[in-house]
Design a protein that fits this description.
two-stranded parallel sheet, 2 domains
Length: 88
């Protein structure tokens, strides 16, 4: 019975620590978002297909990457590299 209580107490301690840690991260995120401009928000909400960044020879188009970086794009989807090497 004592062992069950110790496990329960340890579980509560872990949850309490994670909640406090989560609160710190929430405050940091809130501070960052408070400084977002409309352009920042729109960029973060935009998702670009990775196929749009790859040249016909399979290399990345660095000019497009720089252009999308200036637009503050939030994420890239469908990596053409996720299936492993081609012709390999």
């Amino acid at each position: 019975m004592l062992r069950k209580w110790l496990v329960l107490a340890a579980s509560f301690a872990v949850v309490a620590t994670q909640t406090a840690s989560g609160d710190i991260w929430d405050a940091r995120v809130d501070a960052l978002i408070a400084n977002f401009t409309v352009d920042d928000i729109l960029g973060q909400m935009t998702q670009i297909d990775m196929v749009d960044l790859v040249k016909s020879d399979g290399t990345l188009n660095e000019d497009k990457i720089r252009a999308f970086a200036k637009l503050r794009i939030g994420s890239y989807l469908n990596s053409p590299f996720s299936g492993g090497p081609t012709n390999g």
